[in-house]
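Anyone up for a design puzzle?
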């Protein structure tokens, strides 16, 4: 049995006969006091304004390098700061040293003993790619060097309906998620590695949320979980708190509908501070890193994708928010218009995702990530589920498979040999992109094919 925290209804304790309370917030009541304390808590977390410093110009991106030698000092998970000296940026990752002779599969099974063999194999490939992306090539994951840290990713578990219900973060923090009968998130609980509940929240009967953290309880406007397991909570004033699967908490202050500042916390310690400057309907993004907070670094979509992605996911906008956070060297329209323009964006995003992943069995994830960049959000566990969602999206229309154009999305139904179906983006020249690039599949062996074309809001 999970204990409730500070009176917050516990959605993880399923009792059908017990209804969620719906407290009225009245002037002078305890609920009002808790709400005011919550707002003050958020303000205190973001109160430190820093003086402007040097603005670093955009240079060619270089691989991050650790600020510590790669030596085996402990088998405990700890954070490493990775620095890009030329860009003046840094990133923090969770890392652990393997035991002598340990393989990646053995290390991950030790850290996440509940993994099935099938999921373990996929997680190994994911973490190997994650390390390669940071310049830490671990080969095929066999017989790891105990003197070389492994950079860790989160592990997500699905329930019988294909919904993320447990996230084991790279820092050891665990997030549990509950859902209602309509598959909408009804509550979440975040527990620190020491077993202490960091935050717990539940949706009330009136649709609002009641959240508790560090002994303070407040009513929130909303809370949502995205396809990747990142949670974004919104307070009554529109400020946002993002809990990212990578282990970061990001608190964003919004004034008069404008983004002003996002402050990151990791293990409850203050990290990077992102600052926004509104321009041409979008934002320029700047960062101040904890090792030198007086230096203000201009963040570029081309060179600093991890920074941009962190902010975008924390805002609950998905990676498509990249377009609103570009600098002057790579300006993009504030609003996407024109079906040809969007089709080219879909092709570019699809090809990029597929090329970077180069995996097998993750077609839905690859296409969903690509479509996220234009503001189209798909959810569910199986590729065939995208059909009903796109049929209800007025921005798409169904076209003939004999009239394919680059940027079209093909959704193949499930069959006896393909119980998840298949989904891909047509690139042109007989090629498609999903989680890898391959020759176009036109439905052979699948349970029917539907082709969707982006036509905008017309």
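Challenge accepted. My sequence:
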């Amino acid at each position: 049995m999970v204990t409730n925290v500070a009176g917050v209804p516990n959605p993880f304790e399923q009792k059908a006969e017990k209804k969620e309370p719906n407290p009225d917030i009245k002037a002078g009541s305890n609920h009002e006091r808790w709400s005011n304390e919550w707002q003050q808590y958020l303000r205190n977390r973001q109160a430190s304004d820093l003086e402007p410093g040097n603005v670093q110009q955009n240079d060619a991106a270089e691989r991050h390098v650790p600020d510590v030698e790669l030596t085996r000092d402990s088998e405990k998970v700890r954070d490493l700061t990775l620095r890009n000296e030329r860009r003046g940026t840094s990133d923090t990752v969770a890392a652990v040293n393997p035991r002598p002779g340990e393989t990646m599969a053995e290390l991950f099974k030790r850290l996440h003993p509940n993994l099935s063999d099938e999921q373990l194999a996929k997680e190994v490939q994911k973490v190997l790619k994650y390390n390669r992306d940071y310049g830490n090539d671990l080969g095929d994951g066999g017989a790891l060097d105990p003197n070389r840290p492994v950079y860790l990713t989160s592990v997500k578990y699905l329930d019988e309906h294909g919904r993320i219900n447990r996230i084991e973060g790279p820092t050891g923090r665990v997030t549990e998620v509950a859902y209602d009968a309509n598959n909408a998130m009804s509550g979440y609980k975040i527990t620190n590695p020491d077993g202490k509940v960091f935050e717990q929240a539940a949706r009330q009967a009136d649709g609002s949320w009641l959240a508790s953290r560090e002994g303070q309880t407040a009513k929130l406007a909303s809370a949502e979980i995205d396809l990747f397991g990142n949670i974004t909570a919104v307070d009554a004033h529109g400020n946002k708190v993002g809990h990212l699967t990578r282990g970061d908490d990001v608190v964003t202050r919004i004034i008069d509908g404008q983004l002003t500042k996002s402050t990151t916390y990791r293990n409850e310690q203050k990290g990077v501070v992102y600052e926004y400057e509104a321009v041409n309907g979008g934002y320029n993004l700047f960062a101040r890193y904890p090792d030198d907070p007086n230096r203000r670094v201009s963040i570029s979509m081309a060179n600093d994708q991890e920074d941009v992605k962190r902010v975008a996911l924390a805002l609950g906008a998905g990676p498509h928010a990249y377009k609103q956070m570009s600098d002057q060297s790579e300006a993009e329209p504030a609003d996407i218009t024109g079906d040809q323009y969007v089709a080219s964006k879909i092709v570019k995003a699809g090809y990029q995702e597929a090329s970077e992943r180069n995996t097998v069995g993750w077609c839905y994830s690859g296409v969903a990530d690509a479509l996220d960049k234009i503001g189209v959000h798909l959810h569910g566990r199986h590729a065939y589920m995208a059909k009903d969602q796109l049929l209800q999206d007025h921005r798409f229309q169904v076209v003939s498979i004999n009239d394919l154009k680059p940027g079209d999305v093909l959704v193949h139904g499930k069959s006896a040999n393909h119980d998840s179906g298949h989904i891909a983006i047509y690139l042109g020249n007989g090629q498609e992109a999903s989680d890898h690039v391959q020759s176009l599949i036109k439905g052979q062996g699948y349970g029917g094919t539907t082709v969707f074309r982006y036509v905008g809001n017309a």
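A detail worth pointing out: The domain at 339-454 is CATH 3.90.1720.10 (endopeptidase fold (from Nostoc punctiforme)).
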